Amino acid sequence: MQAPHNQHSPIAAAKKETRRRLFARRRGLLADDRALYNAALRTHLVRFLEDQEARTVAAYSPLGSEPGGPELVSVLAESGLEVWLPVSLPDGELEWALFTGTDDMDDGALGISEPIGARRGNELLQECDVIVVPALAANAAGVRLGKGGGYYDRALATAPSTTRIVVLYDHELGVNLPVEKHDVATGWAVTPSGVHAFP
After folding, report:
1. Cα 140 vs. chain centroid, distance in angstroms?
2. Per-residue pLDDT of the chain (199 residues; tens, 9 = 90+)
3. Where are the domains of the chain?
4. Which label site among 37, 98, 129, 181 has the fewest CB atoms less than 10 Å from its CB?
5. Residue 169 labeled ligand binder
6. pLDDT value at position 112?
7. What are phi and psi of 24, to 5 degrees?
8. Residue 66 is labelled as binding a ligand
């Protein structure tokens, strides 16, 4: 397991403040605007996955204020994809379970909806065609800012060659972010305005 980073470093403090601002802006979106943004974002993401000829994806269950909205997982599954979702473990690690429908979900340790079926480890990510990654923002190089737990940085590090696309609102793309060595970059971003490739 990766060594924990210094929670009291200047970079960690800068990340905390950046997260606070980004969370506040997300919560401030009007419901009608958020619904329009999320619908457009889901359409672009499904088209991207079709262009990638993806069959199996690892995704996530968005909370109400997160890009893509709670319908994201169902839309991906209804497009014919096999969708694996994360299950959060107490030690900051992720396992993965297959999404088989909203009736087979339960609230996990972090209050996020998780599948209740059989689990697999991060080796699953190497078998996926695309990893759909949550974030609060990404910089111009595709380095993402997560919520601070390090779950995804650790998981993504196990599948460096798998295509990954981060899901954001447009104002969260190309943000100047404090970056640490363990932060993992993504190759693509999807926003309500379309799909964007990082250099």
Report:
1. 17
2. 344 445 567 888 888 999 999 999 999 999 999 999 999 999 999 999 999 999 999 999 998 889 999 999 999 999 999 999 999 888 778 999 999 987 787 887 767 788 988 899 999 999 999 999 999 999 999 999 988 777 888 899 999 999 999 999 999 999 999 888 878 889 999 999 999 999 8
3. 10-197
4. 181
5. no
6. 79
7. -60, -40
8. yes
DSSP 2: P
187 marked ligand binding residue = no
- pTM for the model: 0.90
Of the options 3.30.470.20, 3.30.390.80, 3.40.50.10420, 1.10.10.10, the CATH number for the domain spanning 10-197: 3.40.50.10420
Nearest to 125 by CA among 94, 146, 104: 94
Query: Is position 150 annotated in a ligand binding site?
Result: yes
Q: Is 37 annotated as a binding residue?
A: no
The whole-angstrom separation of Cα 141 and Cα 154 is 19
Instruction: Return d(Cα 128, Cα 153) in angstroms, integer.
Output: 17
Q: Does residue 76 have a known ligand-binding role?
A: no
Known binding residue 26? Answer is no
User: Which neighbouring-strand residues pair with 167?
Assistant: 134, 190
- 152 known member of a binding site: yes
Tokens representing 157 are: 């590090």
* 19 assigned binding-site residue: yes
